[in-house]
Write a structure and sequence with these properties.
Elements lengths: L4 E7 L6 E7 L2 E6 L2 E5 L4 H12 L8 E5 L5 H9 L5 E5 L3 H8 L7
Parallel strand pairs: 5-6
Antiparallel strand pairs: 1-2, 2-3, 3-4
Helix pairs in contact: 1-2
């Protein structure tokens, strides 16, 4: 089995805690201390967060959606797939490095 590679870390504003981004092959993990917050192999709950919510808004033209935290982008991807082009989606992310990770090393996930 391939070992985990530490790619980056980022401080969470006003908390003193640190997020860590790790990769093993094509699998990514975002860690907080010893706790895995997200993993690129297990993302069904992130997709369900968007799809189950947006099912309730079906038929509304141009819904406005707020996503709290980008994470690995799975909720955003599912939300974009579930709405029309008139929709407005805003992502509020506290840690700028998470956005950089999504555009950089984790871009291959999407």
């Amino acid at each position: 089995m391939q070992p985990w590679e530490h790619l980056d870390e980022a401080k969470i504003p006003e908390s003193g805690e640190t997020l860590r981004l790790k990769r093993r092959g094509k699998e990514y993990s975002i860690m907080l201390g010893a706790n895995e917050l997200m993993n690129s192999r297990l993302f069904g709950s992130e997709e369900a967060l968007a799809t189950l919510t947006l099912e309730k808004l079906a038929g509304r033209e141009g819904p406005r959606v707020l996503i709290g935290g980008l994470g690995m982008g799975f909720t955003l991807r599912a939300a974009l797939a579930a709405v029309d082009e008139a929709a407005k989606i805003t992502v509020a992310e506290l840690v700028p490095a998470v956005v950089a990770w999504a555009r950089g090393p984790m871009a291959e996930l999407h």
